[in-house]
Structures are given as C-alpha cells and as structure tokens.
Amino acid sequence: MKKVFLTGATGFIGLHxxxxxxSRGFEVHAITRxxxxxxSEKNGLYWHKEDLLNIGKIDKLMSKIQPGYMLHFAWHAxxxxxxxxxxxxxxxxxxxxxxxxxxxxxxxxVVMAGSCAEYDWNYGYCSEKNTPLEPSTLYGISKHSLxxxxxxxxxxxxxxxxxxxxFFLFGPNEHSSRxxxxxxxxxxxxxxxxxxxxxxxxxxxxxxxxxxxxxSLLDSSVEGPVNISSGKPVLIxxxxxxxxxxxxxxxxxxVATQPSKxxxxxxxxxxxxxxxxxxxAPSFDLTTGIDKTIAxxxxxxxxNKL
Length: 306
Known about the structure:
The protein is of the alpha/beta class. The chain has 9 helices and 15 strands. The strands form 5 sheets. A 7-stranded parallel sheet has the order 3-2-1-4-5-7-12, with helices on both faces.
C-alpha cells in the first residue's frame, strides 16, 4: 500500500484529489483543520485534524503516519489578500518543516503546488525551461523560494520531487470573487457582471483536471517543475460571454477591455511536459468545465455563501 500525506485535503483542489488517489491504490492520509461532516467513510481514507502551521505537532503527525508520498496543496489562499500577505512566509516555514520530517521518517516522493506567479509575466508564454522566474509579489516569491529549497533538499536527500505550477483554474466551490464563479453567481441573481481585462488572454483549466494532473504527477517518476495548464490561450471576455450564453444573461455582462494596472495582456502555460513527459490529457474542455460549474452554482444558489 502506498501511503500519501495529503495537505489541503478539503481545499479547492485537494478535495477532488482524494478519490483519484484512492483509485490508484494509495492509502490517503488527509490533513485538515476540520474534518468535513459530510464525508462518507471510504476504504483507505484516514482523516487527521491538525493545523500544519503548528510546527511543533508536524513531527509527531509525520512520525505516526510515516508516508512514502506527500502531495502538498495547503497554503494561505484568501482571494486578493494572498498576493501580499505575511502568511506566505509562515507557509514557507511550515512547508519546509513538512519536507524535513517527511524525509526524516522515510518519505520517498513529494509533489508540491506552485504557481504561474513565479514567472516573469512580461514574457506572456511561460515555459519551464526557457521563461525567467522573476516573481513580482510576495506570494510568487514565497512559492519560488520554496521550490528552490525543495529541489536542492530533495537532491541532497536522495528523494524524488516535482513541482506543479498552476495557471488559472476554475470550478465548483471556488470563491465567488473569482472570474468564473463571479460571472455565474451574478447572472443567477440577475445582476450585472463586469468582466475586467476582457481582451487579455489567459490559460484556464477545470479544477478536476488540475487535481488529476497532480495525482498523475505524484504517481510518476517525472521530476522538477511542470506547468499545470491547458496550453490553450483564451480571451477573458470569451469565458464571460460563454457563461452569458449558457445562462441567457449576455445582456448583463459588461466587458471592460482596458487592461488593469500590472495585469499582463498574455499569460499562457507551455503544457509540453504535462502532455509529453507525463502523458496526461484533460478530461474537460472549457465548455464542459463551465457547464459543470454552472450546474453546481445552480444547485447551490439558494444556500451558497461563498
């Protein structure tokens, strides 16, 4: 049995990763600050209620589980705030402590979640091998710094490691301030939705595909940085208008084409390593991902407080 230490297990990506890990034969040790009450019992799934920022307890938890694998999603992710929050520093510290104890207790392979914010956005098209890493935010710098330390520490310790750089994900349970959820929730309330940076180009990937890519990466021998991206450039306004068509609310969408300050006109990931080295392909295109997200919001429109 392959034991995996899964952080951020109730988060936007982590929750989708659980069943995928179980289906690949992993014994999943899901770490969370609060165990969800609506989770049914599943063979091979074990919940651990713990605050990973409490560094003193990480050693005890890791020594108890002694996993061979670790998939690390947990981070400070409050919308807008996370770009500049000092919590980024605490999460670098906690992540390094996780790594140290993981290796100490026999860990063999670790995959951590990075971000496209590590790249120099002036280049637009981001390649793991060619695009400079020049983050301009505390969040991006923290992620990049953690990757550098992970890479060197893993090599010195003789373990296998990989780093997934996430681009623009979307899907159910996402905070309503994010683009796709904001447009959907606004139209469901028959309110105007302002689509900022409409002529800018981004790289969108449905959250279940993001989770799938990470699980595939963990269950492989691929090492180093890997873009978790679709590789497909899409105008932001196209996403908004597609939602409008689906909800018959195109008249409520106001597209602002003037780019916001510090927002790049183009930001797309090279998906070559993901498709060629990992042999992975998405299960959802943009349309089906939007449809599934709309279905979730429609079903939760009366009670959703995101």
